[in-house]
Every structure is written in C-alpha cells, then in structure tokens.
Amino acid sequence: MTLPIRPDLVGLEPYGAPQLEVTARLNVNENPYAPPNSVVDAIATAVRKAAEGLNRYPDRDFLSLRQDLAAYLAAESHVDFLEARNIWAANGSNEVMLHLHQAFGGPGRTVLSFAPTYSMYPEYARDTLTEYVTFPRSDDFTLDIDAAVAAIGETSPAMVIVASPNNPTGTALPLDQVEALLAAANEVEGGCVVVVDEAYAEFRRRGVPSAASLLPAHPNLAVSRTMSKAFALAGGRLGYLAAHEELIDVLRVVRLPYHLSAVTQATACAALAHHRELQAQVDEIRAERDETVDWLRAQGYTVADTDANFALFGPFEDRERVFQGLLARGVLIRVTGPEGWLRVSIGTPQEMALFRSALLEVTA
Predict the structure, then answer these.
(1) At 65, phi and psi to the nearest 5?
(2) Strands 159-163 and 110-115
(3) What order of strands is seen across the sheet that includes strand 159-163?
C-alpha cells in the first residue's frame, strides 16, 4: 500500500535525542535534581483532586493557571503589569511555538532566525508550510545586530525568533538588541512578530534582564518560557508565553480544544505554588556551570559564554569519536551546533566530575 505522504516529509526521521540509561545523562538540558518530596506530595494531592472530575473536559482557557503563571513571571522578571490575559500556555514550549507558527506563519510567509540555534525551529516551520530562513551569528555566537536588522528588511518575515539564552550556545541577547529587532519588525509591511524564546532564562547570570520587561511598549513582542528546566518539570510538559492580549487571542483561535489536560493544569499550579522549593538548586546549577566553563577553558577548549544550564565547547577534529568515547564511559552528552562542537548539560557535582574525568581519558 502506498501512503499519500506529503513530499516534504518523505524520508525524514522524527526529532529526538537519545534516551539511554547511563550514569550521567547530560544531553537534553534537564534539571538534574528531582522535585523534593514536599512538592511531589503537593502535586499528587492536586492531581488526585483533579482526577475526581476527569469525566468532564478541563477548563478550556485555564484562567487560574494563567494567573499563577503571570504572578510568577512578574516576580521572577521584576515586571508588575502581567495578568492572566497576557499569558498563554501549552504542552511544553514546543506547542507554544507551534501555535505561533499556526497563527502567523503558513504558505507564502517566512520565519527568520539566526544560526546556530534550536534545531526544532525549522520543524515548526515545516509543519506549518512556512518558509524558514536563517542568517549566521558572529563567530562568538552573539548576534550581529546590524546584519540581523538588515536581514529583517531583506526577508520581510512574518515572525522573527531569537532564543535568549540561545540553544545550543547559551548566548543571551541584550535588551537593546531586542529593541533593535522590534524596530526593524515594525517596518515590515503587513506586520512582524518578534519571539524571544527564554526557555533557560532562570539560569541567566545575575543582572541579565528578561525581554518580558519590554512587553508594555511592544504589542508585536512575545516572550516564551517553560517549566521544564528550572522547575524540574520536564515530565509535566508545560510551556507558556507572555504577550499583549491581542496576540494571545490569536493563539486561542488556532489551539486545539482542551489542549491542556486537567492533570497538567493541576500539576503546574501546584508546582508554581512551590516554585522556591523547586528552584532551590538553580544557584547551584549556575555555579556548577561556571566551574565547568572555567575547567574546559583551562583544558584549552573554546567555550561559548553561557547564561543557560549547558555549555557548548570545542572544536574537535572528530567530535563523534569523543561523543562515543564519553558514552562508553557512562556519560551521554549532545552532538549539536556547528561542526566540531559538543554540548554538555550541567548535572550534579558527581555527574560533572565523571564528565571531566571521562573527557580527559577520551582525549588523552
């Protein structure tokens, strides 16, 4: 039997990093610390209560969760103007991004980003029949803002996506550069949305601001976040976005009905109520990251400046050999980014010690 597969999907493999049982799994930027028992108990209680009503559809617009997310983001990023109507949420930030592409992309439209960056961005575009265009970053992985502004004028995109901190490099985007992108987007005929993907924002170094602080003056700005990383809730699947109400309302049009289950909503609300406990190790992860960067540089590697919970390092003549050598020693990292580079997620001190000793053995 022949399936009528879309021609652009023929022969493609699904996205996914290896999920292997190893001593140190440092490849997908997860939080290495499990939720504390007090939070597990709170989530279990909330889910049990939600289970009593699972014969009914969940709250379609999940206003209580959106209010909790607004309160958290307002406190975390020192902004005081966010309300439930300024927040959207979905099954991880991946689905939030897909909603954005469904709303603002499509045939005949272009999404612009700057490589190297998150490998899922072209897949969102592909799935929504949107043209995906990238322009290169500078050699140090920062954004050449003049070139970026020129690229917006050249391509007239419906949407610009910049990750800050950027994945896989960890590079943060200064607010003046975000404002420059927004100014260029305002000149695009028909309009252009600027999306700042802040999936790793809680790990940014102190003093690095969130683009959320720019929201009041920019109705075409969207700031995406996730509970997968700093909240240690990757298995809970909750991503969210802050923007003006008019932009949020467009996302409500394209979402599938009841896309957030009652269990997901209960889990997220319980986690938000205990965010300080869940994020108690964020400072420790930051410190471990900085120590890892210093150590890698001391070994002679080039390491991108990072405000995330990972580090991109290299270059290697044969990165696949290094990757396999680490894996043979129980350390799983990620082959990603420019040719010759590798990315390591920050784990516990014990996991990072194993990574360091394994890397020394492999490259001896």
Answers:
(1) -65, -40
(2) parallel
(3) 87-90, 239-243, 221-226, 193-197, 159-163, 110-115, 131-136
Each residue's pLDDT, cut to its tens digit, for the chain (364 residues) gives: 789 999 999 999 898 788 888 999 999 999 999 999 999 999 999 999 999 999 999 999 999 999 999 999 999 988 888 999 999 999 999 999 999 999 999 999 999 999 999 999 999 999 999 999 999 999 999 999 999 999 999 999 999 999 999 999 999 999 999 999 999 999 999 999 999 999 999 999 988 999 999 999 999 999 999 999 999 999 999 999 999 999 999 999 999 999 999 999 999 999 999 999 999 899 999 999 999 999 999 999 999 999 999 999 999 999 999 999 999 999 999 999 999 999 999 999 999 999 999 999 999 8
Is residue 146 within 8 Å of residue 114, measured between CB atoms? Answer: no
Q: Would strands 310-314 and 302-303 be described as parallel, antiparallel, or unpaired?
A: antiparallel
Q: Is the pTM value of this prediction over 0.85? A: yes
